[in-house]
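Running this now, will post back.
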Amino acid sequence: MQVLFITQDNPKYQQAIDLRISCFFSGFNNAVNLIHDQDEKEGLHLIALDNNTVVGAGRLNFKQNKAIISQMAILKGHQGKGIGSEILIQLIEKAISEDSNEIILSARTTALKFYEKHGFKTIGAVYNSSKTGIPHQKMNLRL
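Update: finished.
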């Protein structure tokens, strides 16, 4: 498996978009618009490749001294194999290298234990995503 940052002109970027849509927005008529939110263009995109196929993705943005992780997705059938952890670790390392003092994210409630295992703490109350209606929890990691 290979994990690397890509630009939006990389041919694998569309595979990452397709993966994120299938994991988060399948069945939504406006799925492409939901992916291409205000953070997409400025985001750093990290992918995991297995046999030249995108099996994982994550996005990192910066606002002042904070890093924001979003839209981490792992292809079904590849979950539970450490791919998400590898992506998350590399996103954390990139945030540190950019002198961020905190990472924030919004996790589906089903993923809370995964992020807690990597040191993230919950913030506030569970809320329903404005994009999908699925319960989420804001989390942070102080660096």
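Residues 23 and 76 are 8 Å apart (CA to CA). More later if anyone needs it.
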